[in-house]
Amino acid sequence: MTELDLRGFRILPGYLDKGVQEALVSDLRDVVGAAPLFSPMTPMGRKMSVRMTSAGRYGWISDTKGYRYSETHPNGQAWPAIPPTVLNVWRALVSDARAPDCCLINYYGEGARMGLHQDRDEADFTWPVLSISLGDEGLLRIGNLARGGSTVSHWLRSGDVVVMGGDARLVHHGVDKIRFGSSSLLNGGGRINLTCRVVD
Ligand SMILES: O=C(O)CCC(=O)C(=O)O
Ligand SMILES: [Fe+2]
């Protein structure tokens, strides 16, 4: 398998075969059944186009009080456990020593996007963020440690995995757009991105 290094992000195209992708989607259906997707508001009061939920001890939430991790879903309930199918990918690529305590699930429907940002709400940046893409293709944009400057873009496809760690742990990134309907993995189309994080 050819592995790519884009500004320190380790990109593993096609890392997960179709069978594993389907198993992940099946487990995620259970997670979303227990912890429904919601549309977060930015601290500025704008609705994000991506819908989200989480699994694990912590989930990532955003509302007018700001971005943060929470031990409960906005509906007040604890998040469901991270499925073993997800933990297996982390174990294979990141660590046997410690498991992630958050798996953020992002769902991109038609027209959804995510602006350039850093993942910096975790306590210890020596742990990488592991990202898994499922379903429709998404155009990842990668910038720099500081805000601004040039960017590079790369289409992520279903089964691709990205490790954002080391010196690149705080590199800005975002998803400009998806190619809605480009994959048949998810009934009804769209893109799911999972990011596994060590929060505390
Ligand atoms: O959807 C993606 O590929 C990236 C998601 C992301 O950057 C995040 O959830 O922080
Ligand atoms: Fe991110």
UniProtKB/TrEMBL annotation:
Keywords: Dioxygenase, Iron, Metal-binding, Methyltransferase, Oxidoreductase, Transferase. Pfam families: 2OG-FeII_Oxy_2. InterPro entries: Alkb, AlkB-like, AlkB-like_sf, Oxoglu/Fe-dep_dioxygenase_dom. Binds 1 Fe(2+) ion per subunit. Fe cation binds at H117, D119, H173. Substrate binds at W60, Y67, R68, Y69, D121, R147. 2-oxoglutarate binds at N106, Y107, Y108, R191, I192, N193, L194, T195, C196, R197. One of its GO terms (biological process) is oxidative RNA demethylation. Residues 99-200 form the Fe2OG dioxygenase domain. One of its GO terms (molecular function) is broad specificity oxidative DNA demethylase activity. One of its GO terms (cellular component) is cytoplasm. This is Alkylated DNA repair protein (DNA oxidative demethylase). It comes from Roseovarius nanhaiticus.
